[in-house]
Q: What sequence folds into this?
């Protein structure tokens, strides 16, 4: 009996060691990025690399002085916030109707946007937006990013709406409540946590999306992610500033992800896995 | 206004904005690309019906075959790595029982950061002359590597970076599957005196197959369209060794402005992704319990 108990303790110990090692592998590259962003320029390319150094904000300062970083950050905020709102406005009522009527094939059609490569849409969009002279405008970016956000909102909200007992709807209808009112007054207040999760996921994916802004933005409307490409060009001479940019760009999605981590997995797998 | 509409009309009204948006921004462009893929463009910018000419051109285009090979090489290598590391990590997390929320946040952080940022970060770490990765290798007495700079290593390196980002995602999916397994199965195995490895191979992993299939589908959709990380780190190089079909299609369209041929390439890639999803879905149904 005690032999089994001690072998159990051994596996538990081994398990903890392996988990710690895995945690290090996951964490260290990100920590290295953040550390490098606080190094002075001679230190960041030092070989062998240094672990202990006097931290400096020099890189962050030079980023805002030598590049329009704040302007790009503002563009990212505008495009991401607006496309998240648009995704919610379009997606929330659609998810409600899909749940109510049990007709989900239109929602499945939106998944085409998730499966087809972005370039497939970018080619016709480029032609379409050129026709109406919208290339380089915020609206072109907001509308195309809503193609990312709307399916997220629909598929994250669908199980939340499905969880509302049918009897709630039926009672409301007996009282003469129209579908509009049921949606606005009853269903929507019951799925507020779903709205929060879908909004945050939509925000993160819109923020992280690279390809559309790469082609459809101009120097005035360029988002941070699309501008990353320029930072790399400049970064070949200045790693510190490059790592400072990378850290700042990664910050909003990471902060938001930590807030909703509990619900994240079921949302990220479009409900395929319960979190 | 609301009173004059029938409930049916109101439901349609609620879904109308999303339906219109889907038609204008998703369905119509999809059809337009299909149409573009059947056209060729003359020097004056006029289109001329080509039929399947653009698709025929692919067959004799070495770049297309290179793109297809790179796409599948990168796909299978990344998928295998992520399923392996993801499952191992999930088993470790499952056995640790009590996990503080901070640990979960830690494992979420790689795949929540933009792939573009992951690319910037690893470019610096994997720099052949000054990067930290080669410092670690040489400190361990191993030869330094050229990583992304060599045609032979670029795909495995990209697969490693992507696996760093997405293995934790697979792990959290598999962890969900593990937590959903009925405990009665384990109890029965324990009474029969089955060893830990036997339980893992004969019971846990077979029961996890549907979850692994789900993870495979979700990762396949992204891996077959691999783009951001490559565009940021190598732009398809060196010597086209990391030019996936998606990168090739993008360059054909937006660098060489051959819209017809680029459309045909993207339609082909879409068919590959959709086909893979359908096949994998079938496989998931086959292993369901």
A:
């Amino acid at each position: 009996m005690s032999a089994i108990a001690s072998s159990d303790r051994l596996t538990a110990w081994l398990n903890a060691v392996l988990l710690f090692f895995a945690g290090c592998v996951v964490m260290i590259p990100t920590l290295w990025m953040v550390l490098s962003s606080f190094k002075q320029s001679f230190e960041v390319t030092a070989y062998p690399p240094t672990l202990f150094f006097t931290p400096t904000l020099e890189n962050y300062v030079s980023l805002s002085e030598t590049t329009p970083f704040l302007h790009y950050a503002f563009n990212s905020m505008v495009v991401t916030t607006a496309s998240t709102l648009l995704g919610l406005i379009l997606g929330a009522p659609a998810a409600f109707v899909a749940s109510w009527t049990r007709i989900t094939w239109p929602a499945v059609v939106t998944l085409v946007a998730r499966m087809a490569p972005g370039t497939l849409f970018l080619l016709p969009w480029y032609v379409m937006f050129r026709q109406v002279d919208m290339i380089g405008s915020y609206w072109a970016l907001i509308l195309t990013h809503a193609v990312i956000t709307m399916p997220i909102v629909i598929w994250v909200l669908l199980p939340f709406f499905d969880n509302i007992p049918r009897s709630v709807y039926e009672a409301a209808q007996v009282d003469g409540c129209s579908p509009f009112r049921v949606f606005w007054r009853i269903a929507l207040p019951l799925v507020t946590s779903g709205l929060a999760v879908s909004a945050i996921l939509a925000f993160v994916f819109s923020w992280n999306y690279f390809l559309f802004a790469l082609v459809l933005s101009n120097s005035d409307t360029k988002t941070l992610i699309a501008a990353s490409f320029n930072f790399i060009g400049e970064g070949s001479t200045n790693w510190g500033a490059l790592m400072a940019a990378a850290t700042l760009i990664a910050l909003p999605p990471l902060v938001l992800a930590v807030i909703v981590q509990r619900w994240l997995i079921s949302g990220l797998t479009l409900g395929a896995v319960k979190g | 206004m609301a009173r004059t509409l029938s409930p049916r009309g109101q439901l349609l009204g609620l879904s109308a904005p999303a339906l219109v948006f889907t038609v204008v921004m998703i369905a119509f462009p999809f059809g337009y690309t299909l149409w573009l893929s059947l056209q060729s463009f003359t020097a004056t910018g006029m289109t001329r019906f080509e039929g399947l000419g653009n698709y025929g051109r692919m067959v004799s285009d070495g770049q297309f075959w290179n793109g297809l090979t790179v796409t599948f090489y990168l796909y299978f290598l990344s998928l295998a790595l992520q399923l392996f590391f993801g499952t191992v990590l999930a088993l470790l997390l499952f056995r640790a029982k009590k996990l503080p929320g901070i640990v979960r946040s830690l494992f979420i952080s790689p795949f929540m950061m933009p792939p573009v940022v992951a690319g910037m970060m690893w470019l610096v770490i994997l720099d052949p002359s000054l990067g930290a990765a080669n410092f670690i290798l040489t400190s361990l007495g191993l030869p330094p590597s050229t990583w992304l700079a060599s045609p032979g290593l670029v795909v495995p390196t990209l697969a490693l970076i992507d696996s760093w980002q997405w293995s934790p995602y697979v792990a959290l999916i598999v962890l969900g599957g593990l937590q959903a397994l009925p405990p009665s199965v384990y109890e029965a195995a324990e009474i029969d005196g089955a060893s830990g490895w036997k339980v893992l191979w004969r019971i846990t992993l077979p029961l996890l197959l549907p979850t692994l299939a789900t993870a495979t589908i979700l990762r396949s959709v992204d891996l077959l369209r691999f783009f951001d990380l490559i565009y940021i780190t190598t732009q398809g190089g060196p010597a086209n060794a990391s030019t996936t079909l998606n990168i090739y299609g993008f360059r054909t369209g937006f660098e060489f402005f051959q819209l017809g041929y680029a459309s045909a390439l993207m339609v082909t890639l879409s068919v590959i992704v959709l086909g893979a999803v359908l096949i994998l879905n079938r496989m998931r149904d086959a292993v369901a319990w």
Residues 68-268 of chain A form a domain with the MetI-like fold fold (CATH 1.10.3720.10). The mean pLDDT of chain A is 87.
